[in-house]
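TOKENISED FOLD:
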Amino acid sequence: MFKIAAMGDKDSIYGFASLGLHIFPFDDTDDPIEAAHTLRRLSESGYGVVYITEKLASLIQNEIDKLSSQPLPAVVLIPGVRGNTGAGLANVSKSVEKAVGSDILSE
């Protein structure tokens, strides 16, 4: 069975702990290189899904792009408590278009 993790600011991800997910808090003052290293470590240690706040994802986009060619982990962008940038929906739309062959989510 694969493990599931959540990465991002504490306020946005602590609720996931009550669902049994492993949480990895990073705030604005943390080094993005450490967050990228953590994501790489999670991908190598049996995590099937990693939820990342959109804000943190924007700081480690290069590492996320490297993982996108691999089947696991699935990296899912989620909005943080401070707002939605739209990056998560754009990422899902891109994945659906790749799987289906056309953009069925846009209006």
Notes: Residues 3-100 form a domain with the Rossmann fold fold (CATH 3.40.50.10580).
